[in-house]
C-alpha cells in the first residue's frame, strides 16, 4: 500500500494544535486506524525534544502506556493553556483592518481570533459587526450601514465587490494616464525626428527653412533682425506678429533706406547673414 504524505517531527515554532491536525490527516490518508499504532507512530516521529517533554510530564509513567489522545492533550495543556475568554474577546473587538490588508485577509484574521471567544451561534453576527466597524474605509462602511437586514455573508460580498471595483478603477485610470503620457512622448519624438532627419522636407530647418539639418545650417550663428536673438533668420522668427509683419526695427530700417535708382531684391537664400537681400542698381 502506498504511503501518502510525510509526518515530520514537531517544530517548536509551529502551533501544536495544527501539528496534531496534520497528524490526524496523515493517519486518515493512509488508513491507519489502530490506536496503538497511531500512538507509536506519533512517539517515533514527534522529535527528541517533544518526546523528552512527554516523558518528563508523565514520570514515572511511560509514554507507551497512554493513548494518543492523552499524549496530545498533555502537550497541549503544557504548551497552550486555555486563554482567557475575556482577553480573547477584547482582542477580537479591538482588531481593525490594516491599510495594506484586503477584506478577505481581514476576515481570516478575525476568524482566527474567535477560536477561544466561545461566541457559539452568535459568531456570524459578531463577524458582521466587526467587519462593518473595523473596515476603515469610509465609502464601504457607509454602504454597509445603509444596507437593511445586513447579514455577515451579505456584508462580506458587498465589501469585497467594492474593494475589487475600486482597484479595477485605479488600474484603468493609471492605464489612461500612461497612454496620454506616451502620446505626448511620441509627439515630441516625431517633431524631433522631423527637424533633425537628413531626409526632412523643404522648410523643416527651423533656422532658415532649408532642406538640411538644423545643426548644419549656415545661419546657426546668425542674429535675427526681427527679435535680435541668435540662431535663426527673420524669415523663420517665431516672435513676429500674428499677421507676419516685420519688427518695428526692421520696418524703420527699410523706411530709411532710399535707393537712388530702381533695384531688384534677390532671393533671401543668397544672403550671408541678413534677411533683406542685396541690391543691384541700374543706370
UniProtKB/TrEMBL annotation:
The keyword Lyase does not apply. The keyword Oxidoreductase does not apply. SUPFAM superfamilies: Retrovirus zinc finger-like domains. One of its GO terms (molecular function) is nucleic acid binding. The lineage of its organism: Eukaryota, Metazoa, Spiralia, Lophotrochozoa, Mollusca. It comes from the Eukaryota. SMART domains: ZnF_C2HC. Keywords: Metal-binding, Zinc, Zinc-finger. It comes from Mytilus edulis. Residues 223-239 form the CCHC-type domain. InterPro entries: Znf_CCHC (IPR001878), Znf_CCHC_sf (IPR036875). Residues 264-283 are annotated as: Disordered. This is CCHC-type domain-containing protein.
Amino acid at each position: 500500500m502506498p504511503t501518502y504524505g510525510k509526518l515530520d517531527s514537531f517544530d517548536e515554532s509551529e502551533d501544536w494544535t495544527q501539528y496534531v491536525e496534520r497528524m490526524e490527516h496523515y493517519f486518515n490518508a493512509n488508513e491507519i486506524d489502530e490506536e496503538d499504532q497511531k500512538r507509536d507512530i506519533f512517539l517515533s516521529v514527534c522529535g527528541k525534544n517533544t518526546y523528552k517533554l512527554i516523558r518528563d510530564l508523565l514520570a514515572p509513567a511511560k509514554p507507551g502506556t497512554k493513548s494518543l489522545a492523552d499524549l496530545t492533550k498533555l502537550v497541549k495543556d503544557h504548551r497552550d493553556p486555555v486563554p482567557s475568554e475575556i482577553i480573547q474577546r477584547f482582542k477580537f473587538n479591538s482588531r481593525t483592518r490594516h491599510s495594506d490588508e484586503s477584506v478577505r485577509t481581514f476576515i481570516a484574521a478575525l476568524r482566527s481570533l474567535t477560536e477561544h471567544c466561545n461566541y457559539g451561534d452568535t459568531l456570524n453576527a459578531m463577524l458582521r459587526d466587526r467587519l462593518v466597524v473595523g473596515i476603515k474605509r469610509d465609502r464601504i462602511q457607509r454602504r454597509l450601514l445603509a444596507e437593511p437586514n445586513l447579514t455577515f455573508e451579505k456584508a462580506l460580498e458587498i465589501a469585497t465587490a467594492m474593494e475589487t471595483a475600486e482597484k479595477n478603477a485605479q488600474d484603468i485610470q493609471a492605464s489612461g494616464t500612461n497612454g496620454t503620457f506616451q502620446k505626448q512622448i511620441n509627439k515630441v519624438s516625431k517633431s524631433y525626428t522631423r527637424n533633425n532627419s537628413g531626409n526632412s522636407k523643404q522648410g523643416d530647418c527651423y533656422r532658415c527653412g532649408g532642406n538640411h539639418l538644423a545643426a548644419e545650417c549656415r545661419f546657426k550663428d546668425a542674429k535675427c533682425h526681427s527679435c535680435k536673438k541668435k540662431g535663426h533668420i527673420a524669415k523663420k522668427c517665431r516672435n513676429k506678429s500674428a499677421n507676419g509683419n516685420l519688427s518695428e526695427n526692421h520696418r524703420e530700417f527699410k523706411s530709411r533706406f532710399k535707393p537712388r535708382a530702381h533695384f531688384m531684391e534677390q532671393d533671401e537664400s543668397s544672403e550671408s547673414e541678413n534677411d533683406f537681400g542685396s541690391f543691384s542698381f541700374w543706370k
